[in-house]
Amino acid sequence: MKIRDVMTKDVHLAHPGDTIQDVSSRMAKGGFGFIPVADGDRLIGTITDRDIVVRALAAGAAPTASVIEFITRDPQTVLDTDDLKVVLDLMASRQIRRAPVVDKNGRVVGVVSLGDLSIRVKEKYAGEALESISR
Q: Which residues belong to any copy of the CBS domain (predicted)?
């Protein structure tokens, strides 16, 4: 099974100049807490609802502050053509719950999350990896 078979394809992107208020509003409306941040087609980081609360709001950032100040840089990505085991191993070894998925040209084409894996994957090693990631 390939990552493209389990990833969420309807991915929302943030851009460096977007405000934390705009991004958090999009998260609230969409019911998700993770957005890849891209400068043009190039992925430069990710931002989560937790990043906004802990890094931005707790530090006194204004709602108009740019997300670029609070992103996690150099995100761990996977290729849409990679085997599922690649993302399972990455998530387990790095203790991450979501990973941006890129195509062969480096463009973001999706996100794979623990939720995607727990719902769509029936393979034996998926359960073991999910348990390892959740620790």
A: 7-64, 71-130
Encode the chain (135 residues) as per-residue pLDDT tens digits: 899 999 999 999 999 999 999 999 999 999 999 999 999 878 999 999 999 999 999 999 999 999 999 999 989 999 999 998 899 899 989 889 999 999 999 999 999 998 888 776 665 555 565 566 665
Report the CATH number at residue 71. Answer: 3.10.580.10
Class of residue 110 by CB neighbours under 10 A (exposed 0-12, middle 13-18, buried 19+): buried
- Number of structural domains found in the chain: 1
d(CA 83, CA 77): 13
Residue 116 belongs to domain spanning: 3-134
